[in-house]
Write a structure and sequence with these properties.
Layout (H helix, E strand, L loop, with lengths): L2 H13 L4 H13 L1 H19 L7 H26 L1
Helix pairs in contact: 1-3, 2-3, 3-4
The structure holds zinc ion.
Zinc ion binds next to helix 1 and helix 3.
C-alpha cells in the first residue's frame, strides 16, 4: 500500500467504516511508515476535536493539507535516500 492509498482510507479507518481486510492493510502500513503514523495521530486528534463540536466530516481543506504535507515529506525522504539506495 502506498501513502496516497493510506491517506485516502484514513478517515474511514479512524471511523471504523472499512472492512477487516483493508483495516489489516492499513495497520501494516502504519507499522513501517512513520509519516503516516504521525498523520494518523494528528488526524485522529483533529477528528476528536470536531466530534466534540458535533461535526463529523473532516473538512476538504484539511484533507488536502494533510495530503500535501505527507506527499512533500515522502518526496523529500526519497531524494535524501537516493545516494545510498542507487
Ligand atoms: Zn505512508
Amino acid at each position: 500500500m502506498k501513502c496516497t492509498e493510506f491517506l485516502k482510507e484514513l478517515t474511514d479507518y479512524l471511523d471504523g467504516r472499512i472492512n477487516e481486510n483493508l483495516r489489516v492493510e492499513l495497520d501494516e502500513h502504519l507499522h513501517w511508515c512513520h509519516e503516516c503514523h504521525v498523520v494518523m495521530n494528528t488526524t485522529k486528534k483533529t477528528i476528536e476535536i470536531y466530534r466534540d463540536n458535533q461535526i463529523y466530516e473532516l473538512p476538504e481543506d484539511l484533507r488536502n493539507r494533510l495530503h500535501q504535507a505527507i506527499m512533500s515529506k515522502c518526496r523529500k525522504t526519497k531524494s535524501e535516500k537516493t545516494t545510498s539506495h542507487e
